Amino acid sequence: MTTALVYDPIFMEHRVPKGHPERPQRMEMSIGYLKALKWLERPGLVQLAPRAASIDELATVHERDYIQEIAELSQQAAETEATSGLPTSLQLGTDTYVSSKTYEAALKAAGAPLTALDAIMNGEIKNAYCLVRPPGHHAVAEAGFGFCIFNNVAVAARYALDHYGLERVMIIDYDVHHGNGTQETFYEDPRVLYFSVHQAPFFPGTGESDERGEGAGEGTTINIPLPAGSGYEIYEPIFRQVLAPAADRFNPQLILVSAGYDAHWKEAEGHTGVQPGMRISTAGFAKLNEIIIKLADNLCDGKLIMVQEGGYDLDVVASGVATSLNQLLGGDEAVDKYGQAPDIEYQINTDVIISELRRIHQLTGYRMRNQARPDREKLLNEVKGPVITKTPASEPTEADSDSCCQNEE
Predict the structure, then answer these.
(1) What is the predicted pLDDT for the residue at 403?
(2) N or C terminus of the chain with fewer C-beta within 10 Å?
(3) What is the CATH code of the structural domain delimited by 3-336+346-372?
(4) Catalytic positions, please?
């Protein structure tokens, strides 16, 4: 089985003002890394051009008036450019912009995981990486913000449920920001398990651990808000002791990943501006990906689609893309320019965090289905404690008698 890279040059045509962190160079650098490594020609990799998501497919997540608004803003930007001869970006929200090609790019960004899912369900590929922009996990039904236009992962999950009739889809989001839009979309839907690990307090302010879903969806939202300074030493046990058993219990038929690399330690020096920021390295992301890939292999025959979200240091995002794609192809090498995170001067009590999370999400005592069970018959026949070897009794010596008498005195 093969891995697909789903990408289109149109993603670089979504323009933002100069200095904006979600810039076209994120795609350019990522493709540049893959070319330099000669990984675009690797055996087992196919490149797929994404189709545009249809209006009806977008409307399973977004209001039709909002979809039309993006189309009209893109047209307005194109007309302004034609008149002025200058690139134009129109402000959609506080930090989100629409240019002449944004609508086309956003349609294909939402269509990329649909293209991947079609190929997976048709038996053509095993898994996929969707290298897309604009990103999506902040976009809600009626609006886009946080750099996001359409919620690409949410549209894909709905497509899996509605078009292919899947009953259980899991979304894993390790972007440094909580995916408020994805959570809101499926907050009352028991068919989608949304798992987010993110920095808190931080933008957009949602994602507390007690936000667990409502109605029929209660319990299918799992939020892991972590303090700044959290690194792999905290993420890894959370993935093994919270994510893994939650996934095992839910038993998904498909796993989607909102792959944002802005929890990388280098991002705190640039985009986030928060010190110490999060402390994941590219090698750390690789080990977390390894856990996810194994879960997909064990639970849903490897059906896994990773979709690009954040990551704004150009080398960080390009390294993350290359490393993730390599892992989907079966490799274990991390492309890591910056190395490990600097140490911090304090420790975070991981045991307390995990214990509380397992309590909140009713995972205490949960046994993974593939966890080896003890051989009770063998254990019953084992000797408890050290084995004492008995030696034949011997006649006491004069020294022994003297010692005995001395003790009695």
Answers:
(1) 43
(2) C
(3) 3.40.800.20
(4) 138
